[in-house]
Amino acid sequence: MPTITAEIVTTGTEILLGDIVDTNAAWIAQQLREAGVNLYYKTTVGDNEGRVRGVIEQSMGRCDVIIVTGGLGPTVDDITRQAIANATGRPLVLHEGALETLKQRFARFHSELSENNLQQVYIPAGALLIENPVGTAPGFIVETERCAVIALPGVPREMKHLMAESVLPYLRRKAGESGIIRRRILRTFGIGESTIDMLLDDLMRSSNPTAGLAAHTGQCDVRIAARAESAAEAEAMLDAAEAKVRELIGPYIYSTTPGESYEAVLV
Description:
By secondary structure, the protein is α/β, with parallel strands linked by helices. The chain has helices spanning about 15, 25-35, 50-60, 80-90, 95-110, 155-175, 195-200, 200-205, 230-250, 260-265; strands at about 5-10, 40-45, 65-70, 90-95, 120-125, 130, 140-145, 150, 180-190, 210-215, 220-230, 255.
């Protein structure tokens, strides 16, 4: 079963400085998990062409897929397409089909197509265009010998549409239409993280399914995840892993519902 490794690169100085919360990366991560793609890194970088280019160049050496969000609009600080072009060694070229779509969109709203809007239809030479029916800036995919660099708009509504309609099918094809990752969280109370780690030693060292711990004030979550050819197989693996966990620390598990607090269960 082919395994795809990925990195999410979020661009935007307003995100880097904390003025805007990056909800895009969390949503993309969830979609990649469901598609069976192994997410290895998340990176946030400001609107600086040199730094964005540097991040992409670094990512190209360690992942199969890089998903870059933001910086595809018409303004001066929208530098993602140029950064990707420079990182992959390809010039930006006018995409005639994207230009015609942009002209039609502006005509439909009786708006003038200004010069700066034209930069949205320049993409790296040889890139695959991702049409954007819910916005003006299309996305694109640059396939190199090492990896695929996927550029998506930063506007959440547009990004989600392009991910669902184009990127996820592309990734599934790249993975041979197989592979899915499922996870489950067992919430515990009254037992320490180090004790759980000791009791679940074998599972904690397993490569598939995997297990991890997340300590919170007064409690600890046990996260188990399984990768398989189908959702049913992955769920079966999780059932077996959960049974093992319950055999060892069952009395301390109070919930498997995301976000459910110990206080709520107690009440």
